[in-house]
Amino acid sequence: MWILYTAIYGILIGFFTVFRKKATEKTNILFVLALSSTIGFLLMSWSGGEAFLLSWQNILSIFGKSFIIALAWVFELLALRNYHISFLQPISAIKIIVAFIASLLIFNEPVIWWKFFGVAIIFVSLILLNQFDKKMLRKQSLLLKKNKYANVIKNPVKYQKFYTKADDGNSIYHSRSISAQHDFSKRRIKAIIYFVISCLLSATSAILDKIIISNVSTNQMQFWFMLFVSVIIWLFFFAFCIKEKKMLVCKSDWKNWVMYILPVLLIVSDRFLFTALSQPDVLVSGVEIIKQLSTVVAVIFGGLLYKEPKLPFKLIFLAFILIGIVIAII
To answer: Which of 26, 70, 116, 314 has the fewest Cβ atoms within 10 Å of its own Cβ atom?
Structure first.
């Protein structure tokens, strides 16, 4: 049953990832995380009586997991605000590598050779998907440059503040275009670094999940996790407000309906994950592999939502990812 539970978790988290990006387009990242986490805690408050039966050691371990995942969320959202979601998702293969190492060294799971073959298919498919995205983005960028150049030729007066003519009167130099390209490159590098950090933190949290859930119930885990995460992110939010010397939220932000979907998705998906991890025959490496379903959902749903180019061609790579998942968990 743990395979089914994890598959449902992966599908829900794929939607959660896209909706989280959508929620932060016009609203502060930390505010979205803090408010959705608080709502999630309120949804779990009914299990408070059971949660307070835990020992302080277990509560402290959940706090450590909560702090790690809070940082992972912040880094992931910073990455997604700087670059395309379908480009960054393939980097999540890092989580599989960390999970495999942990399954061997910490949980002493058996080494099965065809699992490596399945993981290799997933990894290669993610890399090819990544390269396909970069090629499409490069073509899109060249097309935009061509259109801008054509507009300048047709109406040089309108665009003269952006362009300057060379001495021969024929060449046009777009200084702001070069600056924009440099800025885009920096944002892409920052996004990749942020996402790698987020993946490493998430993988660490996943390992802790298996260790902690063996000593606590799902209700206890979710109660303390949502409480700690909401408090930690609210502290991050107010600290950032103090640094900027202004409140980074306005009245219209409270009307961002996507924020109110996030806690429901998080609570339901985590319920399936923790239930899967509590199964006696669960494999940590298998859980992390099946979680890659979130990449499939995020790429398809995110691509449709943001109308990303050549989405049908990406389905080929996503099909190989699904094949790799099936082979790795047989």
So the answer is: 26
Largest CA distance in the chain: 81
- Short-list 57, 48, 194, 199, CA closest to 126: 199
Q: What is the Cα–Cα distance from 202 to 292, expressed in whole angstroms?
A: 13
pLDDT digits (tens, 9 = 90+) for 7-66: 999 999 999 988 888 888 888 888 988 999 999 999 999 999 999 999 999 999 999 999
Task: Report the distance separating Cα 110 and Cα 84, nearest Å.
Answer: 37
The domain spans of the chain are 2-329
User: How do residues 242-298 score in pLDDT, each as one tens digit?
Assistant: 988 888 888 888 888 888 999 999 999 999 999 999 988 888 888 888 888 888 888
Residues 203, 98 contacting (CB under 8 angstroms): yes
Tokens in use for 57? 């050691």
CA distance linking residue 32 with residue 322, whole number of Å: 31
Compute how many other C-beta atoms are within 10 angstroms of the C-beta atom of residue 180: 11
DSSP for 100-150, written as a single string: HHHHHHTS-PPP-HHHHHHHHHHHHHHHHHHHHHHHHHHHHHHHHHHHHHH
Short-list 252, 137, 243, 225, CA closest to 188: 137
Helix (H) or strand (E) holding 173: strand 172-174
